[in-house]
Amino acid sequence: MGTNLGRHRPGAGSVLKENMMRLVSRLNSLWRNLFRKQRIDRELDEEVRSYVELLTEEKIKAGMTAQEAHRQARIELGGAEQVKEEMRGVRAAAWFDSLLRDVRYAQRTLRKNPTFAVIAILTLALGIGATTAIFSVVDAVLLQPLPIRDPDRVVVLHDQLPIFNMPRTKVSPLQFREFSQRTDLFDASAALKAISLTLTGQGQAIRLQTMQTTAGLFPLLGVEAILGRVFTNYDDTFGNPHVVLLSERLWRQMFEIDRGAIGKRLQLDGNSYEIVGVLPERLDALYPHTEIWVPAAISPESVAEKYRWYVDYSMLARLRSGVSIDQARLGMRAALASFNENDFNFGVEIRPILEEEVGDVRGPLYILMGAVALVLLIACTNVGNLLLARNAARGREIAIRAALGAGRGRIVTQLLTESLLLSVIGGVAGLLLARACVFALIWIAPADLPHVGAIRLDASVLAFALGLSFVAAVLFGLAPAIAATRADVAEPLRKGAARSQDRERHRLTRALVVSEIAIALVLLLGSGLLLQSFAKLLDVPLGFDPDNVLTARLSLSPAISGDPAQFSNALVERISALPGVRNAAIATGAPFTSDGYGTTFDIRDHQAASNEPVPHAAVLYVTPGYFETLRVPLIGGRFFTLADMRAKNWLDKSAVRIIDQTLAKRFWHDRDPIGAQIGNDGQWATIVGVVGTVRDRDLATEPQGTIYVPGYGGSTLVLRSASNLKPFIAAVREQVRALSPEVPVYDSQAMRELVAVSLARRRFAATLLTFFAALALVLSFIGVYGVIAYLVTQRTHEIGLRMALGAQRGELLRMVLGRGLMMAMWGVVLGLVGSLAVKPVLASQLFGIGPSDLFSLFFASLLLMVVAVVATYVPARRVTHVDPMVALRHE
């Protein structure tokens, strides 16, 4: 018959009660040990004393004298203090108590050597502060999630048209509709396009940055209106009444948070729009300059097959659950196979929205983060060398502690606590430095740096700084602590700390200096390459003269844009008549002011080779005087005249064009293109001139060629003055207002400023990397100087003996200089090897120079050698002035 043992087991309730009682007991013990330590220590003293008295009484009863019994009792106990220490070690929070004692001891030792403490803290503050500041930028730009629902599921789609030399471009309305039908890949999709609308009827006309979007955008992003509603499919249907959404920023500015704004109407480009909602401010993280939103309301005509390549919309999509980006790419590639049957080579690029947002900023930021991490490593190396020298001087103290019974682990823990205390203080000082650095970074950061407004020292950055302080403490504290406890305990007691020669410690010291020289060389080489690349960009010929050129953007009303000839001619005439203005013109764009657009074209009587790309070029509509205003050189033929202008730019027998030199060389090679004809669909225009190639947007990108069309309707005014441009900004506004109050003027900038802005990101990266390289150079100087000075101090007795035996001062100087140069040479060799690892990283950021540039390698190596020589010479020279008798008595 079986026995039911289960009935004798305690119930779940009693087990829980027992565990709770244990937890309460441990918490009570922890509380008493942390906050009633003095009382517990008194109780412990009484227990030990009582135990000694009991042992003494037992031994007296055994026949011993009172004095002998008390002595034997203490011997049997094993030492009262040792017993107390053992009992403290097993009680709750003993580790915390030990840590507090270590921290207090570390404070005392640092106060005794303030020079060492200040130098170490400042060195760490530089490294931790600089690293934290750069991390705040990386965190804001690359690491913080976008304020949308599941941002890792949202992707951006681009056309890839390599045959037109367009590796990444937007999509057409027809393509958007076709791609959106891939419901096996996407849950939702949206198309949007940035435009500008002119607000009238409220005083002076105001140009508003506008985003046209399909109704699916806001559900796709997970964004809801903070007031009113977002667009519906009805709003997004072509021909339905106009509605508009306001950004929260514009709502506060125009309506002062009036909830009654919903239902009011705005006059935009002459049409009435009803305000139906206000969008939250967090959407500014994606679209920072957008002030209003209107439905795209794509017309049926725009999705016709003949407009397939009118690519002017950005497309977003949300991946279906379970579909990865790679799977979406494969799916789209299979769907597009029919287009590529005739070698059209059409593709679609799919990439995460965050990657789209940060663009080409990711590479430079990672380079800066790596550079500042190397600076921190050099700082830790310097402090590690300081600790090695300091621990060597404390050899007698460490040996005594070991002789009295302190284990190696206990001594290492104490030394690491000192390192941690240094690092924490350095981290606090570094945070103060980082705060100032963040303000400086925001000030010098390029205006188009994504999420620049989100750069701050928030909780994640503070956590990073705290973790960095801990890591730094381990980096610079562990090796010196282990080295200090590895030596023979008896040696310092026999010979004295100053006389003990720990060759292993000296080798470690020299190895650390060699390492920081190698790291400094990598940074110097990187900064030198970026600076040379930037200098070469500055030397790139622009193709025009940017001095004393002012550009201004115009937002033309529908009435004017429908027939712009009269307005354009009148405005150019008025601007040209202003005192001090030499030339003026209007165009659809100007260098560094707009993205422009391109087109394909045919060349009459030209038989293209099978491997020749389809002729394509950027297109710019300009009025006569455009080339003279920018001083674009005429290579051949003539400029446009008023007789060439057309109200409508249809191709006819008298239509003319001007092309740039790049286009002429690409398609006409050594032949003269003047008189040749280009066009589309069997309609032709005659080339009457060839002008110099004008650089635009990115100086590092080779121009693909431009076709200039004589035409009106441009929204960019350019003028050249004889001197100062500032007075003309207000003058242009007055002249435009006199012609039409409904045409706002915006983005008035000097051409020189626009060129500088185009280089801002590269300047930002080059400036910061150069600063870090200079900081690394200074730290390397300090490191070499400190090590040589330490070695000289350690060998003072030997040097005195050499001098007493007849050694010349020059020989001693060469001996010390040789040691410094040897470390520098090894550091340079290792740095050159290490630079091989950064070549692929830097290659994409360089222009006109390779990552293996010999001049940069030679200059960086030479500079470090010079720094090493100077850092070595100062302590080496001190050797030659040592009194031999004083050196022989040195201990």
Would you give an account of this structure?
It is a single chain. Helices cover 53% and strands 15% of the residues. The longest helix has 37 residues, at 408-444. The protein is elongated, with a radius of gyration of 38 Å. β3 and β4 form a beta hairpin. By secondary structure, the protein is an alpha+beta fold. Strands 14, 15, 16, 17, 18, 19, 20 and 21 form an eight-stranded mixed β-sheet that branches. Strands 3-4-9-6-8-7 form a six-stranded mixed β-barrel.
Main attributes?
23 strands; six-stranded mixed beta barrel; 891 residues
Overall structural class, as computed from helix and strand content, comes to alpha+beta
| Largest sheet: number of strands, sense, barrel closure | 8 strands, mixed
* Poorly predicted runs: 1-9, 495-501
Intertermini distance: 89 Å
Strand content: 15-25%
Q: Report mean pLDDT, rounded to a whole number.
A: 81
The number of helical segments is 28
General form = elongated
Helix content: 40-55%
Rg calc? 38 Å
For the secondary structure, the number of strands is 23
